[in-house]
Please model this.
Amino acid sequence: MKRIGLIDNLSPLAIGQPARAVTAAQVMAMTGGNTGNLAYVGGVRGLLGNPIERLQWGEDPDSVRARFDQVVICCANQIGAHVDLSGWADNLSRWQLPVTLLGLGAQSENFSVMPKVPSGTKRFLGRVKELAPSTHPNTATRGDFTARVLADLGHEATPICCPSLFLSPEMGLGKRVLAGQRQQAFERVAVAAGNPWHGPSSRLEPALVDVVEQYQGRYILQHPLGMLQIALGERENVSAALMSRFIEVYGRRFDIDSLFDWYGQHAQYFLDLAAWCEALSAYDGVIGPRYHGIALGVQSGIPGCVIAIDSRTEEMCISSALKHVKSKALTDPTASDLVETIRWSADDASRFDSNRQAKAAQFMAFLTHNELAPSAALTAMTRG
Model:
């Protein structure tokens, strides 16, 4: 069986280090700038049946070729003007090993706008194509939009979904979500907090704060750095401009002191995927603009609804059949309005389960075509 060098954007976590001893900057460094990255990296690991060892960019070519037979890259939304992958192209050229990409995404404001792609990223895609393990496409995207973007660049890809869809090995996960929802009211609701710097969606944060307060919730942070700095009480690192922006976004309901106090009481972040899922399972539902924050709730057996803020989140919701609502469709929502969007119907559950089984089969075929071994859990999901 092929030995796989797995590239992700995480760094080894501080084993045994108390959470409060970790700074906000360290949290971002450990998780590639967004704690949600834990979800899709965990998803990729759960798909593969091969022996896996972490591989880092820049490692010595001779050592890499001695230890590994193939490279698998855990990808994110790296197709767009915001990222130049020329360094990745250089490393693949030095290693000269077969390579497979999982979960690649493109970033744009909507599906009608093709993102601008740097020349270095185009060169990287060219190297990926040259290093394909077989004659089949060796790039699996998070959805159809990314596949169209890549096709426009002359790069053939297989549209599937985000690998985090398979974190739970449970069959009929949608049915479980629906059954649990019917047995209890929405009394405790978690929030996958957004980003006060994201103009089009930041207006929703005050209502999400209301959800936390009115439904015994938690304000779960993934990104950006400033939110974690406030949650960890790092006043010395928070600029006046940042504080001004946050107070503006939250409808001026806070001053500096009360904002730090509120975050200290209600905000939370996770460095461990299992702990994150376990915490979410104690809630009746989850809502917010963070795809992975919602996806983890569903994988834990509770209903959730993503507030889709751009093509990236909408594409993942569509490809995973995860319930979502476009942020533009929410006009001055109340906390109860947002909580009501969480509720799953029988159709939502059925669509989610049938789509999940179909996507499992697609991933299994993709891995097989790329000379990779599907995991036992993935194989079981294809059997229904």
Notes: The two ends are 26 Å apart (CA to CA). DSSP finds 18 helices and twelve strands in the chain. The longest strand covers residues 99-104.
